[in-house]
Amino acid sequence: MHNFILKRLFQLIPVLLGVSLLVFAIMSFTPGDPAQLILGENAPQHAVESLREEMGLNDPFVMRYARYVGNAATGDLGRSYSSGRDVFNEIFSRFPNTLILATLGTLIAILIGIPVGILSATRQYSFIDSGSMLMALLGVSMPNFWLGLMMILVFSVNLGWLPSGGYSDWSSLILPAITLGTGSAAIITRMTRSSMLEVIRQDYIRTARAKGVAENVVINKHALKNALIPVITVIGLQFGNLIGGAVLTETVFSWPGVGRMMVDAIRQKDTPMVMGAVMFLAAAFTLVNLLVDVLYGYVDPRIKSQYA
């Protein structure tokens, strides 16, 4: 298991290098001069040129990228062009907000997705099954930003029950967490139903029923545990997606997380901040997937033996 974890951690290096090269190239070759943005539109040209030279922006692309990677390897992600703050500290000051939102969104998705998926599978082709699959289809199809705007319109503007944005108290979490968790709940519902249907048709389930074991014991003890393995995969991937993919939800609800910070940095062509945020989210997504793989070993000993 330790060798497997080390191997996966080493695989993180080429992933981060590929992501950093792609984002650095996009930020370098798109219009906009960071020196001009820092000094303002009315700054004299000689001051802009002097700052460009000081920041190393006149160096070739390869040299600038190599310098960035070398600094990042030592933990120096640079300073924001717009605020002058250290990128590393800025990201870690906002990451807890993103983590809280992603965790709550995942919990909502699990609490909805798994029970509804089990209910749908045990009552296949019933009204409950059809209704559940229709709601799951709607949940997968609805864009997050549209759902967020509709929820703001209904619960904040019209009813006045919940705040429309920002982070003041626990009530600020409700709308963005539901918005973020809806799509994942739909995916978990469909996966749980599919996995449960496959398991409850196995011979050992029929044997348990033939021996007179209570139906709730058959479902909860014998079927659910084996059906959960692919569901755990989906939950792990969804949690990683929610950490890295909360950009639109954080922007719609003005949530002070890493995603909103990254959108603001892109608007200001703040290359160090964009690079730091993207690499951090890519690393977080990869580590979450690694955690899911490790978790497999504890759910299914057969998988753990393959890592040995």
Keywords:
308 residues, mainly alpha
State the gist of this model.
InterPro entries: BPD_transp_1_N (IPR045621), MetI-like (IPR000515), MetI-like_sf (IPR035906), Opp2B (IPR050045). This protein is mainly α and 308 residues long.
Description:
This protein has 308 residues and is an all-alpha fold. The protein is 79% helix and 0% strand. The protein contains 14 helices and no strands. The protein has helices spanning 2-29, 34-39, 45-55, 61-73, 87-122, 127-141, 144-158, 171-199, 203-210, 215-244, 247-252, 258-267, 271-299, 301-307.
Which residue ranges are poorly predicted, with pLDDT under 50 across at least 5 consecutive positions? Answer: none
User: How is the biggest beta sheet arranged?
Assistant: none
Bulk shape: globular
Q: What is the H/E order?
A: HHHHHHHHHHHHHH
**Proportion of beta-strand residues:** under 5%
Report the span from N to C terminus. 6 Å
The chain-level structural class is mainly alpha
Oligomer: single chain
Question: Helical element count?
Answer: 14
Helical coverage, percent range: over 70%
- Give Rg in angstroms: 24 Å
Number of strands: 0
Overall residue-averaged pLDDT value: 85
